[in-house]
Amino acid sequence: RVTLRESGPALVKPTQTLTLTCTFSGFSLSTSGMCVSWIRQPPGKAPEWLALIDWDDDKYYSTSLKTRLTISKDTSKNLVVLTMTKMDPVDTATYYCARISKCISTSFAFDIWGPGTMVTVSS
Amino acid sequence: QSVLTQPPSVSGAPGQRVTISCSGSSSNIGAGYDVHWYQQLPGTAPKLLIYANNNRPSGVPDRFSGSKSGTSASLAITGLQAEDEAHYYCHSYDSSLSDSVFGGGTQLTVL
Hints:
The complex is a heterodimer.
Chain A: E1 3-7, E2 11-12, E3 18-25, E4 35-41, E5 48-54, E6 59-61, E7 69-74, E8 79-84, E9 93-100, E10 112-113, E11 117-121
Parallel strand pairs in A: 2-11
Antiparallel strand pairs in A: 1-3, 3-8, 4-5, 4-9, 5-6, 7-8, 9-10, 9-11
Chain B: E1 9-12, E2 18-23, E3 36-40, E4 47-50, E5 64-69, E6 72-77, E7 86-94, E8 99-102, E9 106-110
Parallel strand pairs in B: 1-9
Antiparallel strand pairs in B: 2-6, 3-4, 3-7, 5-6, 7-8, 7-9
């Protein structure tokens, strides 16, 4: 059974750096065509794609946020880490990690999601 | 404002059929990029409902179906049930933005 779970601080201060960890099981990020992505969803709004890392360690970022984001993986520990710098109250959202099992084109679907972790940015 | 436009809300009575539209442009749906649909029940993570325009993941009832034509896509739900009350989001890729994009979402109310 495939599962993903996000972890990280529930509260960060403005200007701080957010570090989130996605721990997964049931698949390997070394398998060709496999990717893990981060998506966030502000309260009452639609999801927003943030970043993606693939089986070959290629990384892709949201155009509007790429200067603030870094994604990395530890295949042996089955985890993916996202850092976001210069946090602002508008970054308050639920942050999800999700698996992409057919990550061979830009038309990918997020087939399994973690439950999400709520992050509030406030002083 | 998303580049994929969905109606904010739709409703239907139990047993009825409803459709949710997702309107895009020549840089996303019209460019041939696949459309995916997600269902989000209150307080939970989105769940993949339809992938690559008209394919259902294992376990998704055949009451749910997807279609795509030109610069738009649609999600159809037949035999509406109370448990279908949720938010629904379409998702695709936009080549002008070079980003994976979601629609603004549609709240389905079962009357």
